[in-house]
Amino acid sequence: MAVRLMRLPTLAWRKMASLAAFGRSLCPTSPLFPAPACGNHGSLLRPVRHLGSGEAAGERVLQVDNRCSDQVLDFPGGKVMFVPEMRFLPGSANERINCYRVLDDNGQTISGSRFQEVSKEVAIKMYSDMVTLQVMDTIFYEAQRQGRISFYLTSNGEEAINVASAAALTMDDIVFPQYREPGVLLWRGFTLQEFANQCFGNMLDYGKGRQMPIHYGSSRLNYFTVSSPIATQIPHAVGAAYSLKTDGKNACTITYFGDGGTSEGDFHAALNFAAVMESPVIFFCRNNGWAISTPTEEQFRSDGAVVRGQAYGIHSIRVDGNDALAVYSAVHAAREMAVHDCRPVLVEALTYRVGHHSTSDDSTKYRSIDEIEHWKTARDPVSRFRKWVEGNGWWSEAAEVEHRSSTRKELLRAIQVAERAEKPPLSELFTDVYDQVPANLREQEKSLRETIKKHRNDYPSDVPV
Ligand SMILES: Cc1ncc(C[n+]2csc(CCOP(=O)(O)OP(=O)(O)O)c2C)c(N)n1
Ligand SMILES: [Mg+2]
Q1: What is the pLDDT of residue 461?
Q2: What keywords are assigned to this protein (predicted)?
């Protein structure tokens, strides 16, 4: 047999392979150690790694079998065919990746569509939470315009993504949000009073008033605190998912991010890490067409985010983000794969940011009003889901009026309470980072107090000094 030998340094590869093998062995439902609860399809889908037979310390021996005319290279990851033609892979396929959908624009299920059943109780909660989110966005946005809170950001147009994805998870699953997903927290039981306390930064706010409005978080509800820097939460979700796996928990993590977030290095590192370590994490990309004023055509040249999952060896799906049933079904299936097969999954939801990026933005400066109106009316996810829920006889105009009115009243009351509540004392600015406040921070506190004393009128009167 004619065998050509190639020697490659292998330390990095060897480390990755052994870590991955370690990870697989930890997974309670690993395809290598199949348990009854686990569908053993992982072994069929997982690329086979060949570690080579003639390895010496610090080097790898690759074997090239020259026996047949179609040469095959036995290479880490599997066998690779040799071909005589020089052919570059195209940057994109001729056709774009399809988008999974269940409901048509009129809220009717598309014939032949396959989706996860939703009970009456869950469907009503899904719809009513979508409406609550709309009411919340309208009132908080107005409160910002009145100067009562400093900042706000709506989820208009992305209500189905928020609520339907949350509905498909369990409370043990841990959420790592970007910032346009308060509906996930709402679904989990964050109260309107808790939302208001955070936006007003009062002493009942869990962040003790240190963050801008909309930076919600709740350890009770397994929801990590929103952090402004884009995409930093994505690697965190991978690490947390890996720890869920090592602890043998029947849970996964989910992390949300926008189309803009996929341009950050953290996104790429996280996907690769998750794939190699087989972390049970759902990457949920809200592709809403815009990253503030940057349209997706200027954000990436790939067919959105979904193809990037495949590039990293991750099961991926594109879904209509304005179709609550499609989002629910896709996340439900993704969760099954993540938890039972111990693998990451990427969901790309196509949607549109109907509102301005935030209260610091005016999107009519960079996109047409016609475009916004089209998505707001013809493609509205809330009215589409309402048609389906009403069509099942589970909702009515009377229920709609009652729910909108009672939510509005409850939120206005919560805002009044939050606004009147005391602010956290100034000293809290310097706590909770170090166990003992270090000398430099104590100095800064002293200096701040002196400055406030000198310029009392320049500082808010309602902050206890
Ligand atoms: C690391 C980092 N760079 C830039 C910003 C400023 N910034 C805030 S939001 C945003 C756009 C994010 O767009 P996308 O991820 O698509 O989310 P969307 O707002 O559309 O929901 C940018 C660039 C930031 N917060 N963090
Ligand atoms: Mg975006």
Answers
A1: 85
A2: Metal-binding, Mitochondrion, Oxidoreductase, Potassium, Transit peptide
Confidence of residue 7 (pLDDT cuts 50, 70, 90): very low
3-state secondary structure at position 4: strand
Distance CA 143, CA 273 (A): 42
| Cross-strand partners of 75 | 78
Encoding tokens for residue 366? 């960079």
143 Cβ neighbours under 8 A, 6+ residues apart = 149, 152, 199, 415
Structure tokens at 304: 């959105």
Pair type for strands 174-176 and 78-81:
unpaired
d(CA 46, CA 38): 15
225 phi, psi to nearest 5 deg:
-70, 135
Tell which atom from ligand 1 comes closest to the C-alpha of 292. Answer: 11
What does 415-433 look like in DSSP terms, one character per residue? HHHHHHSPPPPGGGGG-SS
Phi, psi of 315 (to 5 degrees): -60, 135
pLDDT tens digit sequence for 212-263: 999 999 999 999 999 999 999 999 999 999 999 999 999 999 999 999 999 9
Which parts of 58-208 fold into alpha helices (H)? 120-145, 159-167, 182-188, 192-200
Q: Which residues line ligand 1 (CB under 6 A)?
A: 180, 228-230, 257-261, 286, 288, 290-292, 353, 357
257 CA from centroid of ligand 2 (Å)? 8
Q: Is there a contact between 231 and 266 (Cβ–Cβ < 8 Å)? A: yes
Q: What predicted TM-score, i.e. pTM, was given to this entire model?
A: 0.87
The counts of H helices and E strands in the chain are 15, 11
Q: How many residues does the chain have?
A: 465
3-state secondary structure of 35: coil
- State which fold the 120-420 domain adopts: Rossmann fold (3.40.50)
Q: Say if residues 140 and 194 touch (Cβ distance below 8 Å).
A: no
State in Å: Cα 371 to ligand 1 middle.
21
E strand or H helix that includes residue 399: helix 397-420
Atom of ligand 1 nearest to the CA of 179: 21
Q: Give the pLDDT confidence score for residue 198 in this predicted structure.
A: 98
Within a 10 A sphere around the Cβ of 91, how many other Cβ atoms? 8
> Measured at the alpha carbon of residue 243, what is the angle toward residues 230 and 19, in degrees to the nearest 5?
100
Looking at residue 36, what is its pLDDT? 32
CB-based contact 322:287 (threshold 8 Å): no
Task: Give Cα 71 to chain centroid, integer Å.
Answer: 43
